[in-house]
Input
Amino acid sequence: MAEQRYSFNYAVFRYIKDAKRDLSVPVGVALWSQDFSWARVRFIQSNERVPGVNKTTDLPYVQLVARKVNSWLSQRQAPYLSRDVTPDRDQWWQHIRNILVHKVKISEARSIDCINPEKELESLFRDVVRGLSDQEEHRGRIDHIVLKCLGTLASQFEMGEVHGFAGKPVKVMRHYLGTNATVIVEGVNLSGENAPDETDALVGRLERVRANGHGPLVDSERPVLAVVGYLSSPGGLNGEAYLKEWIEERGRAVALDVERETERLRTCAQLALDQAGPPPALMWR
Amino acid sequence: MDPVHKRKALRGKLLNLIHAYRDDGPMAGVTRWKPRRVYCTNQPDHTDQPGQLFVVKFLQGQPGAAALISEVVATSLLRFAGFQTLDPFVVGVSDGFAQSCNASSDYPYRVVSGLHFGTMHRDDVEAGPPLVYDDLAKPSEVVELWVADTWLSNIDRQVDGNTLLKVTTSGKFRLIAADQSDCFCGAVSFCSDQMERRMCTARTAPSIQCLAQVLFNHGGPGLIRTAIQRVRSCVPLINNVINLVPEEWWNISRIDPERVRRVLENRAGHLEQILHPDQWEVPHGGTALFI
Output
């Protein structure tokens, strides 16, 4: 039987940076459904950084409006509005649009195919306000953890792309180009819902980098040394050990737990750097 | 100089005349007078276009004219008393601009050519009232404004948008008295025969939240008495302020300016009896509030 779907709408709260030039920054989202009798908002919080929102001059206005809107939602009442109109209706949000006319404004209602509103509200916020997809956010978090594990070694690695199959670029988390080899440092969350897909993507990237000598117009192959930091379930690998093995076997990488094997991960990265040798430019001096 | 010219000269000094040039859409479509955002110029021929953005309250019949008088008189008195308000202006509307507005379905009322009321638009504020005491950069402003509103018999200070909030370096907010159209017991009452009687019997004005907390935390009776003195210092200026109001607004509203002067002087003299500062004399007030 097909699962029941409800009709949802959303709107975006924007902080007006410059009214004359119509410059604004998204600072929150509202999601509601009359069918589902549900309405929530999510604004930026003081511990979250959003480009363009200054903590001293801008954030107090956003927080003021966030508290007001939340208070209207909890009382199910807004200024100048009849009590018959509830927050789960488009009419309520159209009215809020007429009230918020100063530093924080709200967009018109927009359609969305929402299945899980709680999750959707957070995803919408990440996507619209912070400009990150779920995957990008996870990747950003793992990148941060892996870099923390590397400690001072992190400065030797660069962000960006390396050459892969057919000489085409492959985006990797961090890389180091030595005289003898290329070192790749990657990260993956093996405890997440999408761990198998992320693992496949990671192994695929490594395979493509390793095939850097193959394909038309490519005649030399550079050896690749890969070190992968992974996040496991709170008690250690729990049903996801096969993914680690897959990374080691098919990705030909050293895979280490970023929380339990921090020291080993750093040592392996150092060994790989030693084996890769100095950067080519240094050799020529 | 005859009285009419004297008034015009005084208005020129304290309440500048600007000229509606270009409509920029509704400002607060849900409020009673439905003000509009309008670019206004200093020159009637708009040679200094595009001018600046103003929020214009258009004159709408007899109660509308009463509301505009209330704005000019109360806003000017608040400014003389040292309160932060929006900068008030008289806005001239030409026949052409009025016709253009009336041809648009966007206007829910008829715009007449002549003089209207406007304030300079500010893009550095958010609508009040503040929700909690901790939002206030200068809590005593709540009491001072309450006392002034009581003098002016303002009936709706607590309504969303009738105060504006401007952030300070501490992240807290200063209060701006933004809407004075419902002083004198409200615009309808103001232009009725009952105005004087209602003003004589009117009690304290509604305040924004946190009044009790501010009074207990900042020495209630003393604070109220100081605010009363501040209000009374404006009494000699009442005549000047009344003279700022355009003649046509008095005519349309059928309000007698002399009665306005009388009720304001009378209420200023009775503020102690109306506000009862003594009743806030509570030992250990800060904790008494929570008991």
